[in-house]
Design brief:
It is built from 17 helices and 12 strands. The strands form 2 sheets. Strands 1, 2, 3, 6, 7, 8, 9, 10, 11 and 12 form a 10-stranded mixed β-sheet that branches. The protein has a two-stranded antiparallel ribbon with strand order 4-5. The chain is globular. Helices cover 44% and strands 14% of the residues.
């Protein structure tokens, strides 16, 4: 019996050694050991992070569409077509509210991602901190001709381009054309695919007419215009209102210059329309989300929107979540007659990992998916920055052309100043004081400028842009 057991154990041992040897032989013969497809190219692994943007490669209706689909597809093509290295791209989707925490932890640990795809305004401080590398060398004249200069202004800090623009999310006003008709304001209604421009005089007439002529039986508890100051959400529209009388907001050195006659007039105008009942009441305790809900419920005739919110509104109407009404777009008016508009540009930045090879590969990958004729079509999931893509899809999505024509009116709401994230915490308390009457318009613009410039000056001390 013992002899049989020993023989059995010996046979098992021989079998296991044979299997291990066989597996080892197979591993040595794998093509991957010499690089992709046996090319012998050096292997390089880079990482790309993004916050949720759009699902699918080109459309959310694609099978298995997810937030990482486009970049995984782009990475596959890049690895197949790139001649310099055998590249692997690790794509990770990061929650927006975890972005800064994760980035700071990884930066402090010396392990930042190679690439981050995000809205530029949310990432500008990383350029000032010296965490990003310039992208001037991957931007050519063809791209500059296809993408309007105002977009390049948004992604340029100092003398260098730090983000490659891919798509954008324009911010405008939105109005209920049915409420306009009910108030006898038909002549001020633009086309369905038009971004209507009103003069400031026309805008004030619209607001006053809505207040007096809007049928109360059909639109009970409705107000002409949205106004909010609860927190920093939606603050870009408030920044636009403060520019309505010609104030440039920032000087050439990145300092706030709101405290002048034009800035005071803007604050006085906000207080005037609020006190006149031309807006929703309680603006100091109302959020942008509250106003968005009020507009959907037809309690506001004019509100704020961006391209994503507007598309979501249309989709909710089609699905029955929101009662249907005729919603159209308009620009923010100004005293000069030239409208105000802004946008959230999204694109890619490359972190300085102190690894020349990874930085080179990362920049090449960013250029690849930001310029490839097929891949740039994915920008239609937002609004394309490229005029060529707008031309291709304008019949399918006619608002693209309107947004593209409107780009000449864009202003850079961040000024690309350092400390912008912290600066956002300064404005809304001053607006709250304006609406409650705690401060005069003159005091509000003075205090905002003083406090805001303190934030900027402190941030400038650590800015590589201002300390070259």
């Amino acid at each position: 019996m013992l002899r049989k057991r020993l023989v059995a154990l010996l046979m098992v041992s021989i079998l296991m050694l044979t299997l291990v040897a066989g597996c080892g032989q197979k591993a040595e013969n794998k093509p991957e050991a010499e690089g992709a497809k046996g090319t012998g190219k050096e292997k390089v692994e880079i990482s790309l992070w993004l916050t949720p943007q759009w699902k699918g490669v080109f459309d959310a209706s694609e099978e298995g569409a997810d937030y990482d689909s486009f970049f995984k597809y782009a990475a596959k093509r890049f690895s197949e077509e790139y001649e310099d290295y055998d590249v692997t791209v690790d794509v990770q989707v990061i929650a927006g509210d975890q972005r800064d925490e994760l980035l700071n932890v990884n930066l402090n640990g010396g392990t930042p991602p190679d690439i981050f795809y995000e809205s530029v305004f949310a990432m500008g401080d990383y350029a000032h901190r010296g965490a990003l590398v310039p992208l001037n060398d991957i931007v050519d004249d063809t791209a500059k001709k296809d993408i309007a200069q105002n977009f390049w202004d948004v992604v340029t800090f100092g003398d260098d381009i730090y983000f490659y623009p891919f798509s954008h999310m324009p911010g405008t006003l939105v109005y209920n054309a049915d409420m306009f008709r009910a108030a006898g304001l038909d002549e001020y209604i633009g086309g369905e695919n038009e971004i209507k421009t009103w003069s400031l005089e026309e805008f004030e007439k619209i607001l006053n007419t809505l207040k007096t002529n809007l049928p109360k039986d059909k639109y009970p508890n409705a107000y002409p215009m949205a106004l909010f100051a609860l927190n920093n959400q939606g603050d870009t529209w408030n920044l636009a209102y403060l520019r309505m009388f010609g104030n440039k907001f920032f000087d050439e050195n990145g300092n706030i210059i709101l405290n002048d006659e034009k800035g005071v007039k803007a604050a006085q105008w906000l207080k005037k329309i609020y006190d006149a009942g031309l807006t929703n009441p309680g603006a100091e305790s109302v959020s942008s989300n509250d106003c968005n809900a009020m507009f959907q419920n037809q309690q506001l005739a004019i509100s704020f929107t961006n391209s994503v919110l507007f598309n979501n509104l249309k989709a909710d109407m089609e699905s029955g979540k929101v009662a249907k009404f005729d919603a159209r777009l308009a620009n923010i008016p100004s005293e000069s007659g030239e409208p105000l508009t802004f946008t959230y540009v999204t694109g890619s930045c490359v972190f300085n990992t102190n690894d020349e090879t990874r930085v080179k590969v990362s920049k090449d990958f960013v250029k690849f998916f930001s310029t490839d004729p097929e891949l740039v079509k994915a920008s239609k999931n937002g609004v394309p920055v490229r005029t060529s893509v707008v031309e291709e899809f304008k019949s399918e999505k006619p608002l693209f052309e309107a947004y593209d024509k409107n780009s000449k009116y864009l202003f850079n709401f961040t000024g690309n100043v350092p400390g912008y994230s912290e600066l956002r915490q300064v404005l809304y308390p001053e607006l709250q004081a304006l609406y409650t009457g705690e401060k005069t318009p003159e005091q509000v613009v003075k205090d905002y400028q003083t406090k805001g410039n303190e934030v900027i000056q402190n941030a400038k001390k650590n800015s590589v842009i201002y300390n070259k």
